[in-house]
Specification:
By secondary structure, the protein is mainly alpha-helical. It has helices at residues 20-26, 29-32, 36-52, 58-76, 89-101, 114-150, 170-195, 214-221, 230-235, 238-265, 292-316, 330-352, 358-366, 372-381, 386-403, 412-415, 426-429, 432-438, 447-460, and strands spanning 155-160, 163-169, 197-198, 225-226, 272-274, 354-356. The protein is elongated and about 100 Å long. The chain binds arginine (ARG).
Length: 462
């Protein structure tokens, strides 16, 4: 046999060293060193299992575990030297294990492959990241609850097509966003559940003849169970894509909220004030106070959607099982977590820094004939069909428009000309407060409903 030209674990077959450029493109250590805790935990679980199953001797297993714990400390204290020529986190750690405990390190890789390691580590990372994001989502929900509670009775216009539609409670509007973030929370919980199948022990792709106990390693690592198919085990990146999708959805919700905040804070709308600590100035226009935080919330969602698309495209043409293409899976996921984690924190701070401009909200709630539907409903209650009532209400709007008045400024004598069924109680029906509080259907904007929902939410997000 010829002399080995490289000291790589797989170098024995090679007649020459890998080119410098191949080494460069092949190395993922700069990205996947993020997985060191998961990799060490995975190796320890695997090693203990090998000893329990009497596949390796228990004194060797102990040496390996001690060596791995030493490496963990070296990395934590930043003493560990990561090297590109050792490619990735798995081989960097294995190489160092050989230096620390000698040839016994070679027993660790029985019945496993880097293909198992990388996806096991990555799954553990995704589970952890989803748990962390859920903590931030909860904090954001709590901040929204607080803001809603503080401004329970504030009335604002609700919109469709960005045209004033019907009066609603500001608190009800905020509760709408809470619903979105609650769904995101639920979806990340599902990501955790769906990711909780352990691929370790797939042994590259076919499984192994050694009597390994994959249920044991699953339990050790906190997975619900082992994956059912060794080929799928190493080929699956659905969990990473699902993580990116749920992150995209959550970012979309954050972006819509940010857009509302930007719009409401604009000088032409001016429905909310934002505390200066969430605003920036202009280098030329001395008067400016800009909502950059909200704009970046909106802007950064773009990178997250890009990351989802990137991994979908990377995976779409790959036959089973492992290809090096899949090494590109981590960067978009790690980056997405970083962005979303910061965005959720910023969103919380932004929500905490908002105060509604109550007078302007109320003025706009009255503007645009927003109780026209209430007038139609009034006529329905007096016996008309809704279609008939709709026409009559439109006529009333035309009169108000001609007189340049809002609906609640019209006199009873004017209104009663519309239909003989109209009685003086119509005046009440045209008031925005009455409109809001009449919406008592489940999920509607009445203060009674909102108070009930807030109570429920406060219990849920203590
Ligand atoms: N660093 C690699 C990755 O992230 C590890 C898997 C290597 N497997 C292989 N068959 N070359 O995908």
């Amino acid at each position: 046999m010829g002399k080995t030209k490289t000291n790589k674990v797989w170098g024995t077959r090679m007649k020459s060293k890998p080119s410098e450029l191949l080494t460069k493109i092949n190395a993922s250590i700069d990205v996947d060193k993020e997985l060191y805790q998961q990799d060490i935990n995975g190796s320890i679980a695997h090693c203990k299992m090998l000893a329990k199953q009497k596949i390796i001797k228990s004194d060797i297993s102990k040496k390996i575990v001690n060596g791995l714990e030493k490496i963990r400390k070296e990395i934590q204290s930043k003493k560990f030297k990561f090297s590109q020529s050792n490619e990735d986190i798995h081989l960097n750690i294995e190489k160092r294990l050989f230096e620390i405990i000698g040839p016994n390190a070679g027993f660790l890789h029985i019945a496993r492959s880097r293909n198992d390691q990388v996806t096991t580590d990555f799954k553990l990372w995704v589970i952890d990241a989803s748990q962390n994001l859920n903590i931030e989502i909860k904090k954001l929900i709590k901040a929204l609850i607080k803001l809603a509670e503080k401004n329970k009775n504030v009335i604002m216009p609700g919109f469709t097509h960005l045209k004033n539609a019907q009066p609603v409670l500001f608190s009800h509007y905020l509760l709408a966003y809470i619903e979105m973030f609650k769904r995101d929370h639920k979806k990340f919980t599902n990501v955790i559940k769906n990711t909780s199948e352990n691929p370790l022990g797939s042994a590259a792709l076919a499984g192994t003849g050694f009597a390994i106990d994959r249920f044991y390693t699953s339990k050790q690592l906190g997975f619900l169970k082992p994956t059912d198919n060794s080929i799928d085990g190493v080929s699956d990146r659905d969990y990473a894509i699902e993580f990116l999708f749920v992150s995209s959805l959550c970012s979309m919700h954050l972006s819509r909220l940010a857009e509302e905040i930007i719009l409401w804070n604009s000088d032409i709308v001016n429905m909310i004030n934002i505390n200066d600590k969430m605003l920036t100035g202009s280098s030329i226009m001395p008067q400016k106070k800009n909502p950059d935080g909200a704009e970046l919330l909106r802007g950064k969602s773009g990178a997250i959607y890009g990351n989802l698309n990137s991994l979908l495209v990377t995976m779409k043409g790959l036959p089973l099982s492992y290809f090096k293409d899949m090494q590109e899976d981590k960067k978009p996921v790690f980056e997405t977590f970083k962005i979303l984690n910061l965005n959720l924190k910023i969103a919380k701070e932004l929500v905490e820094s908002i105060s509604p401009n109550k007078a302007i909200m109320k003025k706009f709630a009255n503007y645009g004939y927003t109780t026209a539907t209430d007038f139609a409903d009034y006529l329905v209650k007096k016996g008309l069909s809704f279609r008939e009532a709709h026409k009559k209400s439109a006529k009333l709007v035309n009169i108000a428009e001609k007189k340049n008045l809002s609906l609640n400024e019209l006199s009873f004598s004017e209104i009663k000309k519309i239909d003989k069924l109209i009685k003086p109680d119509v005046i009440k029906a045209l008031k925005i407060e009455n409109s809001v509080n009449s919406k008592t259907s489940y999920g509607g904007t009445s203060i009674k409903n909102v108070v009930k929902m807030l109570k429920k939410l406060k219990k849920e997000f203590k």
